[in-house]
Amino acid sequence: MPVAIITGASKGLGRALGAALAERGWDLVLDARTAGVLEETAVALSGYGTRVEALPGDVTDAGHRAELVAAARKLGGADLLVNNASALGAEPLVRLEDLTLDGLRQALEVNVVAALGLIQEALPLLRAAEAGAVVDISSDAAAEAYETWGGYGASKAALDHLSAVLGEEEPGLRVWAVDPGDMGTDLYAAAVPDDDDPRPTPDSVVPAFLRLLDERPASGRYAAPALLEER
């Protein structure tokens, strides 16, 4: 069975992707910081009959990243890495004049540095896979200027560029930076707690990610809403 490593997988988009892959027979290595919630997710997803390894921890910890890849190796390799874990830098979001530099560093450390660290750790397994792929979760804030989204958006823009360069350097892999579009997640609620407008659920955008895996288009940046509209 193919194996996927998914960070930030205890809820939201990470859990929704994990469930869709488990339903297809994928084995999973799941990461999140909250052990209890992650274990609940692992038990639920193992109900699909696949193997699920849940490793609570912080992706900024090099030792934890090594453990994730080691777990995938024990399951047979790594066919897919999903860098979904994210940090806002401030909760709720603030204007750049009020964004602490430590907050910006946190966003960059989680969203960019840790993502690259996990990619580097997993590359030997991804290269050995028959159809290795990396999915880096982006945001429209990486491409558009929204008030208060500067720090987070800058980190996601850096992740986009990292993804683009990796795609050039690793022609044997597929490297997709994916903007999932608006979603009702805990991350968004923490970013903008006063926004009561209903937003799509994470599972509603999962078909866009499955389309990438099924069709394997060229490495690049994709927007989930556009992928859904084109079906």
Strand-helix topology:
Elements (H helix, E strand, L loop, with lengths): L2 E4 L5 H12 L3 E6 L2 H12 L5 E5 L5 H14 L4 E4 L17 H28 L4 E5 L12 H20 L4 E6 L6 H6 L14 H10 L4 E4 H6 L2
Parallel strand pairs: 1-2, 1-4, 2-3, 4-5, 5-6, 6-7
Helix pairs in contact: 1-2, 3-4, 4-5
Explain this structure:
The chain is of the alpha/beta class and 231 residues long. It contains 8 helices and 7 strands, in the order βαβαβαβαβαβααβα. It has helices at 12-23, 35-46, 62-75, 101-128, 150-169, 186-191, 206-215, 224-229, and strands at residues 3-6, 27-32, 52-56, 80-83, 133-137, 174-179, 220-223. The chain has a 7-stranded parallel β-sheet with strand order 3-2-1-4-5-6-7, sandwiched between helices. Helix 4 (101-128) runs parallel beside helix 5. The chain is globular, with a radius of gyration of 16 Å. GO terms for molecular function: oxidoreductase activity.
Structure annotation, total helices: 8
Oligomer: single chain
- Termini Cα gap: 27 Å
Low-confidence stretches: none
- Averaging pLDDT over every residue, what do you get? 96
Largest sheet: 7 strands, parallel
The percent range for strand residues is 5-15%
DSSP summary, beta strand count: 7
Shape: globular
Lateral arrangement of strands in the main beta sheet: 3-2-1-4-5-6-7
Helix content: 40-55%
Structure summarized in a few sentences:
By secondary structure, the chain is an alpha/beta fold. The protein has helices at 12-23, 35-46, 62-75, 101-128, 150-169, 186-191, 206-215, 224-229; strands at 3-6, 27-32, 52-56, 80-83, 133-137, 174-179, 220-223. The chain has a 7-stranded parallel β-sheet with strand order 3-2-1-4-5-6-7, with helices on both faces.
